[in-house]
């Protein structure tokens, strides 16, 4: 499936466009529509605090054992899993570092989004392609 690069705000221009992917996340009879940033430089998937709560997660500081780097390096994070549905592809379990920080973007990183999907970025065309991993 091919997707267009997009912005998060109508006041932004094409230089602010990034590979943002619409998906559905399911967990424990809860489901939400979300937009994830396909970030090949991110080591792990990152789930914003608000989305984890909407999916029925309960924050537990004792489970906040994931050490993140970069802008989120000082934020507590705990393991979280959800089923992702992207277009007509088969549902896939994604593993996240759930962060307790408001307004964090949903990031799709190497573990495990890029392990489950092949992603080709065509920045010059302002589009990207996502396919399930080859067997």
Structural topology:
Elements: E1 2-4, E2 20-27, E3 30-38, E4 45-47, H1 49-54, E5 77-85, E6 92-99, E7 107-108, H2 113-116, E8 117-122, E9 127-132
Parallel strand pairs: 3-7, 4-6
Antiparallel strand pairs: 1-9, 2-3, 2-5, 5-6, 8-9
Counting copies of identical and different chains, the oligomeric state is single chain
Spell out the helices and strands N to C. Answer: EEEEHEEEHEE
**Which residues form runs of ≥5 with pLDDT under 50?**
none
Mean pLDDT: 94
Gap between N and C termini, in Å?
18 Å
Q: How many DSSP helices?
A: 2
Rg, nearest Å: 15 Å
Number of strands: 9
Across the major sheet, the strand order is 4-6-5-2-3-7
Main sheet? 6 strands, mixed
Helix content: under 10%
- From the spread of the alpha carbons, the general shape counts as globular
Strand content: 35-45%
Find the structural class using helix and strand composition. Answer: mainly beta
């Amino acid at each position: 499936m091919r997707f267009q690069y997009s912005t998060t705000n109508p006041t932004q221009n094409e230089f602010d466009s990034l590979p943002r992917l619409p998906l559905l996340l399911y967990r424990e009879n809860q489901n939400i529509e979300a937009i994830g940033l396909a970030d090949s430089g991110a080591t792990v998937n990152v789930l914003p605090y608000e989305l984890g709560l909407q999916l029925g997660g309960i924050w537990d500081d004792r489970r906040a054992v994931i050490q993140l780097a970069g802008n989120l390096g000082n934020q507590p994070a705990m393991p979280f899993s959800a089923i992702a549905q992207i277009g007509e592809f088969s549902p896939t379990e994604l593993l996240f570092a759930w962060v307790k920080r408001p307004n964090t973007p949903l990031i799709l990183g190497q573990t495990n989004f890029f392990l489950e999907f092949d992603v080709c970025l065509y920045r010059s065309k302002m589009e990207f392609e996502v396919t399930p991993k080859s067997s």
